[in-house]
Design a protein that fits this description.
- This protein has about 250 residues and is of the alpha+beta class.
- The chain has one domain: Glutamine Phosphoribosylpyrophosphate, subunit 1, domain 1, CATH 3.60.20.
- Helices cover about 20% and strands about 30% of the residues.
- The protein has seven helices and 13 strands.
- The strands form two sheets. A seven-stranded antiparallel sheet has the order 3-2-4-1-10-9-11. The chain has a six-stranded antiparallel sheet with strand order 5-6-7-8-12-13, with helices on one face.
- A hairpin with an 8-residue loop joins β9 and β10.
- α6 crosses α7.
- The protein starts with a strand and ends in a 6-residue tail after the last strand.
- The relative contact order is 0.18.
Length: about 250
């Protein structure tokens, strides 16, 4: 369900990662190779990127399939950035949220995406939503599981938690409430990438094999370079431009 990708490194045209590779995120929207849940990622897409001197990223999101959006092709051809996050959304049940449900979600310097699904949505996590202040519930961009996950993680970030701590605690909390959930979360502030592998595929490429010698963290490889490495399930990923640290995640208490 869904595919997403984050890049950190030297300035790069977005298309060099998002559209040019043979199994790019664009192609994964209709022909993913390692997606274990869902088949077509056609219910929206988005990309967020950082410009020099501005810590707040710009975003481009739409509710339809990425392959039908010609302005996206132009954007990825001309925009350069040292950091970006992009996602394509799996076909899902009908809803009125439109592009508001498409990642990346954003607040301040942060970009966020969720690949997976909260089991027994929304019943299983209703108590978690009820514990949020009313102003945070009213600020949700959409009525989907990814938007709630972002609210839970963002509350921790705003309280001073480190990115890894915020994502790990969010995964633990939601997995305890909805044990069959798939919770691959992806977060960047333009200088770091933090991600979780929990129930779905996650890979990374860093150093000489990555574009510009940077780092890419993605749901699946966009080419057949043998230097891609799969992240073990139940793992927290912390990455900078040329370094990746993997830390096992604890199972939530039963």
């Amino acid at each position: 369900m869904c595919r997403h990708l984050a890049y950190l490194g030297p300035p790069l045209r977005l298309g060099e990662v998002l559209t040019a590779p043979p199994h790019s995120l664009l192609r994964q929207s209709w022909a993913p190779r390692r997606q274990r849940h869902g088949t077509v990622n056609a219910d929206g897409f988005g990309v967020g990127w950082y410009a020099d001197g501005d810590p707040v990223p710009g975003r481009y999101r739409r509710s339809g399939p990425v392959w039908a959006d010609l302005p996206f092709a132009d954007l990825t051809r001309v925009v350069r950035s040292t950091a970006f996050l992009a996602a394509v959304r799996d076909a899902t049940e009908p809803g009125a949220d439109g592009e508001a449900a498409a990642a990346p979600f954003a607040a301040g310097p942060w970009l966020f995406s969720h690949n997976g699904a909260v089991a027994d949505w929304p019943r299983s996590v209703a108590p978690l939503a009820a514990a949020l202040p009313a102003v945070e519930l009213l600020a949700l961009e959409a009525r989907c599981d990814a938007a709630l996950l972002w609210a839970l993680a963002l509350r921790r970030l705003r309280a001073g938690a480190e990115p890894g701590e915020a994502l790990a605690a969010t995964v633990s909390e939601v997995a305890a409430a909805a044990p069959a959930s798939r919770l691959n979360l992806l977060l960047t502030d333009g200088s770091t990438i933090t991600a979780t592998a929990w129930g779905d595929s996650l890979w990374y490429l860093t150093g000489p094999g990555a574009p510009g010698g940077g780092t890419v963290v993605a749901s699946e490889p966009y080419d057949d370079d043998p230097r891609w490495r799969e992240v073990p399930d139940r793992t927290l990923v912390r990455a900078v431009r040329a370094d990746v640290l993997l830390t096992p995640l604890k199972e939530p208490p039963t």
